[in-house]
Design goal:
The complex is a heterotrimer of chains A (102), B (175) and C (746). Chain B has 175 residues and is mainly alpha-helical. Chain B has helices at residues 2-24, 28-48, 52-76, 80-84, 92-112, 137-147, 150-171. Chain B is globular and about 55 Å long. In chain B, 26% of the residues are buried. Helix content of chain C is 66%, strand content 3%. Classes of the chains: A mainly alpha (102), B mainly alpha (175), C mainly alpha (746). The A-C interface holds A 21, 24-26, 33, 94-95, 97-102 and C 718, 721-726, 729-730, 733.
């Protein structure tokens, strides 16, 4: 069994990122899209932590803290928007919201 | 050593499994629960990387805060109708192909750069070499955060303030 | 002072006077209603009051006071107090010219070589051209004055007689409108005439030639409101112009042959041995002479271009006296005399001149026999006397022609002015049939006219006898003359005496046929007029004594000054064909003194006979003329209607030109001018249509094409904007794919 190297974490992070991207591009439900975005953010965090550990540097963790802070703020505002959207349009399907179509 | 490996794979399974479930569930509630599982897996991974503070923060903030928020909103917004409708939009195949291509490219990058991932010190459990003067993880973060990164910290707090105001404004029925 | 230096002033004085008059004259004599002259006899167009206060004083030589209170039918208008200035300026200018001329001639006579040429400035700069013999010459005309015996005679005549007539006009034209205009034109005329006679080259002479023609037109048509006067002015100018065409052709041919037009150079060239007389046939020089003579016929009223002179009597009488008796009509004679060297080389042309001169003389005399207008008689008499002058020129007796010109100026001017005085007395009546028994009513006029008529008839002792007799003798004796010419001249002399005395008898003698309302106004003319008549009468008596024939040996050479004075002008050249004849006069092999005395006596007898016959016809038995007229009605009518020459010309030229020209002009106007306008309109419409098409399709099309392209390009782009966020996110991923792809392949 190989020891777990940084590469494993990178691969894991990439996989999570791709899954999150698929979720963003594919799902119609806005809530699920937002959750996919959280997945992407977490993938980034994993990457940061892995390198922080590999380089023995605490900056990566700091950065991860800020990423989480951002994720919080973004989730809050995003959900607020979702509620406002739902109130106006009675739908949470992403491809039904095409008011800015040409 | 072995323990790390096994733990890693368990947590990785949680993470990826939860992620896949998240993006494929019809019901938003199921998706949210899956996401929580995934996030817990991530937290475990943090612990494996000796980022204890972040482990705690992840659990408390992410799972306990964000996901709770999600759950509240899911329950607030009636998604039953949405669960019955088509879940995947028209571009799902194209998106899948594109993402697969990107994945292939990333795999190629990682493969091409394998040699550069050999770092100075081998990974060891419980090691604290290279970190300043045998401080614990939390202390280190505190030192750096309130020392070198004080300004970004303050800005982040402003950001949070803005987010609070914004979400309150968005959610109000009448501004 | 040296008058020879100031020759250029001589024409300048009258020019200055003319400029003053024509530019400022209106200030000096403003008219109340119009400054149009009303011809005597024509109804005045404005009402007239009877009392006119004019207080002009004249203090020139012939000073007089206006003390006549005639109520004549001219228009009255209050004269400006400045009118006397006109009387001072214009005659004064001519007087100055006369004094300067007299001075210059006197100083010239003191010189040994009596030629004075003064070139003022180069007028037309030279352009080289090819002469007919292939050499190069330069067309250079200068503004120069030539004072030699011939031109000195002319300037004395022009300024002297001109001055007298100006003085006369101050009296005659006193109550006419346009006073300042009249004097301005008169001065202008004198200027041009002086330019003509003082010119040192043909072109400058032609300038004067044209100028006097212009002034003649202006003055004949002075009463321009009267249609007949305006027509007469036009006729004079146009007929003159026809002659001028010939003059120009002759001048240019001469230039082409000789390369120069300056008199001194021309005469020198012609008198050199380079040119031989064209006895055999018609060469270039003959054509030149004939063309120049054609111009002279126009100006000097010879056949065929004499028709304008009788009509020119529409102008005021002083004009007739000055222009059509003494000066302008003599310009042709002067020009031919000036070109004597040329004519001497062309015997054929000389013959033509003589024949035409004689023919015109007798033609005009026949017409004058039956005219009833007093001025018409004198006009035809002028034509006839001019014929005499050309006859003299044609037989080579150049100085005799100039001598006759000199004496004729005196008595013809006298006769014209006298007739003007008669007309003035008769309140505008010119028809002799309504005159009669005037000799006691206007004695001064009568006596002076008596002298003039005697002179023109050719009674010995007076001026006309000497000159006319010399002409007749030369016509007979000169190798270029002949018995026929002499006989024609004699007949004309007889007729001259007859019709002149017919005029005198009808006007002054017999029973009065004057209309009653005119008879009450008959009065003698003012001193400004009668004084001039007196001076001219004196001249008519004395002038002839300057050219006493050589036959009268009892008179010394002093009495032959005229011939001697002019002799060097007509000195013969190397190739002159008549050099033996001219100037020799009496002592020919074929002609003896006896012949000359006989001929002289014959002409005197004929003249006296003419006078007596006229007396018989018109005083003793006045019914005879009517019987004769009734006996030969055809002949009478022909003579009365001037041999229908005017009608023939009308038919041949005038109508043809008018109608043909009218049609041509109409067609031109319709097709070319209107066609042009219509065409321009059509073109404009076409241009507008094209422009509109261009604007609509091409310009607007370009603009619309631009917008169309943008719109077309926008369709693919629009497809991308779906409004769906996930689609946009997909493009982000595609972008990432591309970026990574770049790094993959690198």
């Amino acid at each position: 069994m190989h020891p777990i190297t940084t590469v494993h974490y990178l691969a894991l992070s990439a996989a999570l990122l791709l899954i999150g991207t698929v979720g963003v591009l594919t799902r119609r439900n806005v809530v699920i899209i937002l959750m996919s975005i959280e997945l992407i953010l977490n993938a980034v965090n994993i990457n940061l932590i892995a390198f922080s550990h590999a380089l023995q540097n605490v900056n990566g963790q700091i950065f991860a803290i800020f990423v989480i802070t951002d994720a919080v703020a973004e989730a809050a505002v995003g959900l607020g928007i979702l509620i406002a959207l739902f109130r106006n349009k009675e739908t949470v399907q992403a491809d039904e919201i095409d008011l800015l179509k040409w | 050593m072995l323990t790390d490996t096994i733990l890693f794979y368990i947590f990785a399974l949680l993470v990826l499994g939860g992620a896949v479930l998240t993006i494929t569930r019809h019901s938003a509630m199921h998706a949210a629960i899956s996401l929580i599982v995934s996030l817990l897996g991530v937290a475990g991974l943090y612990l494996l990387q000796q980022a204890e503070f972040l482990f705690a923060v992840q659990i408390v903030l992410y799972v306990g805060g964000i996901m709770l928020l999600f759950l509240f909103v899911i329950m607030l917004v009636n998604l039953d109708q949405a669960a019955k409708e088509r879940q995947f939009n028209k571009q799902w195949l194209v998106a899948l192909v594109a993402v697969a291509a990107v994945g292939a490219q990333v795999a190629y990058f990682i493969h091409a750069g394998l040699d550069s991932f050999h770092f100075a010190a081998p990974l060891a459990a419980g090691m604290a070499a290279g970190t300043p003067a045998g401080l614990g993880n939390t202390e280190q973060i505190a030192d750096t955060l309130f020392g070198e990164y004080l300004l970004p910290f303050e800005i982040a707090s402003v950001l949070l303030l803005v987010a609070v105001v914004g979400s309150v404004a968005m959610a109000k029925k009448r501004i | 002072m040296n008058f020879l230096e100031t020759i250029w002033l001589i024409p300048l004085f009258p020019l200055f006077g003319a400029a003053l008059m024509l530019l400022f004259g209106k200030v000096l004599d403003p008219q109340p209603k119009s400054d149009v002259a009303v011809a005597p006899g024509v109804e005045p167009i404005f009402e007239h009051g009877h009392a006119h206060e004019h207080d002009h004083e004249h203090d020139h030589d012939h000073g007089h006071t206006h003390d006549h209170d005639h109520h004549h039918q001219h228009g009255h208008h209050a004269h400006s107090p400045l009118k006397f200035l006109i009387d001072l300026i214009c005659p004064g200018m001519i007087l100055l010219s006369f004094l300067f001329s007299a001075g210059a001639v006197w100083q010239l006579s003191q010189q040994a070589h009596r030629v004075r040429e003064v070139i003022q400035f180069s007028w037309i700069a030279g352009l080289p051209f090819h002469m007919s013999n292939g050499h190069m010459a330069s067309f250079q005309m200068d503004w120069g004055f030539l004072l030699d015996p011939l031109s000195s005679v002319m300037i004395l005549v022009v300024t002297g007689i001109g001055f007298l007539i100006h003085v006369y006009s101050t009296g005659y034209m006193a109550h006419d409108g346009g006073y300042y205009r009249f004097f301005g034109y008169l001065n202008l005329f004198v200027f041009f005439m002086l330019m003509l006679v003082l010119a040192n080259n043909y072109v400058l002479l032609f300038v004067g030639w044209e100028g006097v023609g212009l002034c003649s037109y202006l003055l004949i048509g002075f009463y321009f409101h009267k249609k007949s006067a305006a027509d007469a002015g036009k006729k004079a100018f146009i007929v003159n112009r026809v002659g001028d065409a010939g003059f120009i052709i002759g001048m240019l041919l001469l230039l082409s042959t000789l390369g120069t037009l300056r008199f001194t150079d021309v005469n020198a060239a012609l008198r050199s041995a380079a040119f031989t007389p064209e006895v055999a046939g018609i060469g270039t020089l003959t054509i030149v002479s004939l063309c120049l003579f054609f111009g002279a016929t126009g100006k000097s009223a010879q056949f065929p271009l004499y028709i304008w002179l009788p009509d020119a009597m529409e102008g005021p009488t002083p004009v007739s006296a000055l222009i059509h008796a003494a000066t302008m009509v003599t310009a042709g004679v002067y020009m031919v005399a000036r070109s004597s060297a040329l004519f001497s080389l062309t015997p054929i042309a000389l013959t033509v001149v003589a024949v035409i001169g004689a023919f015109t003389a007798i033609l005009a005399a026949t017409i004058a026999l039956v005219q009833n207008d007093i001025k018409r008689v004198l006009a035809y008499s002028t034509v006839s006397q001019l014929g005499y002058m050309f006859l003299a020129l044609g037989v080579g007796a150049y100085w005799v022609a100039v001598f006759h010109l000199f004496t004729h100026a005196f008595f013809k001017a006298l006769l014209f002015l006298g007739s003007g005085s008669v007309i003035h007395a008769m309140s505008g009546q010119q028809d002799m049939r309504r005159m009669g028994a005037l000799k006691d009513k206007i004695p001064l006029t009568y006596r002076t006219m008596w002298i003039g008529s005697i002179a023109i008839a050719g009674i010995p002792g007076l001026a006309g006898f000497f000159s006319k007799d010399e002409i007749l003798w030369q016509a007979f004796s000169s190798p270029k003359g002949g018995t026929v010419l002499w006989a024609v001249g004699l007949t004309t002399a007889a007729m001259t005496a007859f019709y002149m005395w017919r005029m005198m008898y009808l006007t002054f003698y017999g029973k009065s046929r004057v209309a009653p309302e005119v008879a009450s106004h008959v009065h003698e003319s003012p001193v400004s007029m009668t004084g001039v008549l007196g001076v001219l009468a004196l001249g008519s008596v004395l002038a002839g004594w300057l050219g006493v024939p050589k036959l009268w040996t009892m008179f010394g050479e002093g009495f032959r000054t005229f011939e001697n004075w002019l002799a060097p002008m007509f000195a013969t050249g190397a190739g002159d064909a008549v050099k033996e004849a001219v100037g020799q006069g009496v002592h020919q092999g074929a002609h003896s003194a006896f012949t000359e005395w006989t001929l002289m006596l014959t002409s005197v007898v004929v003249a006296v006979a003419g006078i007596l016959v006229a007396r018989y016809f018109y005083v003793d038995k006045p019914e005879i003329p009517e019987h004769i007229a009734a006996a030969v009605p055809g002949l009478y009518r022909t003579l009365y209607n001037k041999w229908y020459v005017d009608e023939i010309y009308d038919f041949l030229f005038v109508n043809g030109l008018c109608k043909g020209g009218g049609r041509l002009a109409g067609a031109f106007d319709r097709d070319v001018v209107d066609g042009g306008v219509n065409g321009a309109g059509w073109l404009t419409r076409l241009a507008a249509t094209l422009s509109g098409w261009w604007d609509t399709w091409i310009i607007d099309g370009a603009v619309r094409l631009g917008s169309f392209i943008v719109k077309m390009l926008s369709y693919p782009v629009c497809i991308l904007q779906t409004g769906r966020v996930q689609g946009y996110a997909f493009f982000v991923v595609i972008g990432i794919l591309v970026f990574f792809g770049y790094y993959v392949v690198r």
